[in-house]
Design a protein that fits this description.
CATH superfamily of the largest domain: Metal-dependent hydrolases
Helix content: 40-55%
Number of domains: 2
Strand order of the largest sheet: 1-2-3-4-5-6-7-8
CATH architecture of the largest domain: Alpha-Beta Barrel
Order of helices and strands: HEHEHEEHHEHEHHEHHEHH
Largest sheet: 8 strands, parallel
Oligomer: single chain
Length: about 300
């Protein structure tokens, strides 16, 4: 006969088993890791020429065949390819996305000086292409933000519903009015809006303050990326802890995206260290925060199904 004591003992035992199984599942589950920025490129050749004077971040190409083993060894599931400024071509990045659609997607480059490029945006999201990446990091391109050169782009990208990654170190006050005028345009700020020059000049706190000010615009998110190159210290880059925390506190886990820019400061930290920097040394991130920052947020932001 089933006594009350035996019933309770059995029920408690079953509950304990379920809790134990849940704990094991939670502790052993694999977090999806998606890197929001990696450059891939081929060697300079007649078929794939670099622009005159181009200088890659490494002396040798970073090819599909080279990056895949690095991803597998570090446990990186997906990578957003950001074609470098060696040329304005997206074909090699799209080749990677076509060959490995579950591993790679692309934020492509577009000729900004040609307003006729606007006609390409409505059909921009071909297979593997998720959005556009813009760079304002030379005297000429920085001037484009204020001289009207790129004014055509923002409304065209907004109308096409395209996410846009923007590299513009120390130029966040110029990004603010763009975000305000185009609330339907998903803007992703690269590298928290800062670099090692800003860090060396002692301007990090002020520049991060300008990035944090963009948090009031719901259409703006931020890549917590290129940390190894921006830091003036070795791993685990303690001088970057406060800047990362300030940005994270302002934008929250769903609007922050981990990324490496792996080929920049390539020998300063390996792929696993760039992951463990976030997952093991930043104690203000909860496990749920890490789920979002380390992959889920960028995948959802770019609608990478």
């Amino acid at each position: 006969m089933l006594t009350r004591r035996r019933f309770l003992t059995g029920a408690l035992g079953a509950s304990a088993a379920l809790l134990s199984t849940h704990a094991v599942t939670q502790s052993t589950r694999k977090r999806m890791i998606a890197d929001a920025q990696v450059h891939l490129w081929k060697a300079d050749s007649p078929d794939w020429p670099w622009v005159s004077g181009a200088k890659p971040q490494l002396p040798e190409p970073m090819t599909i065949e080279r990056v895949l083993p690095l991803m597998d060894e570090a446990g990186v599931d997906r990578v957003v390819i950001v074609p470098p400024t060696l040329n304005d071509r997206n074909d090699y990045a799209l080749e990677a996305a076509k060959r490995y659609p579950n591993r790679f997607a692309v934020m492509g480059r577009i000729p900004l000086k040609d307003p006729a490029s606007a006609g390409r945006l409505p059909k921009w999201r071909e297979p593997g292409m998720l959005g556009v990446r813009l760079t304002f990091n030379t005297p000429e391109t920085i001037q484009w933000l204020s001289d009207g050169t790129v004014d055509w782009f923002w409304p065209a990208a907004e109308k096409a519903g395209l996410p846009v990654m923007v590299l513009a170190f120390g130029r966040m006050p110029q990004i603010a009015p763009i975000a305000a005028r185009h609330p339907g345009l998903p803007i992703i700020v690269d590298h928290m809006g800062v670099n090692n020059v800003i860090n060396k000049e002692g301007k990090m706190a002020a520049a991060i303050g300008e990035t944090v000010a963009l948090a009031k615009y719901p259409n703006v998110t931020v890549k917590l990326s290129n940390i190894a190159a921006t830091s003036l210290e070795p791993y685990p880059f303690r001088d970057m802890t406060d800047p990362i925390r300030r940005v994270f506190d302002a934008f929250g886990p769903r609007r922050c995206h981990w990324g490496t820019d792996l080929t920049n400061a390539f020998t300063k930290a390996n792929y696993r260290q760039r992951i463990s920097h976030f997952t093991e040394t930043l104690d203000f991130l909860s496990e749920e925060d890490k789920d979002w920052v380390m992959g889920r947020s960028i995948v959802e932001r770019l609608k990478w199904s």
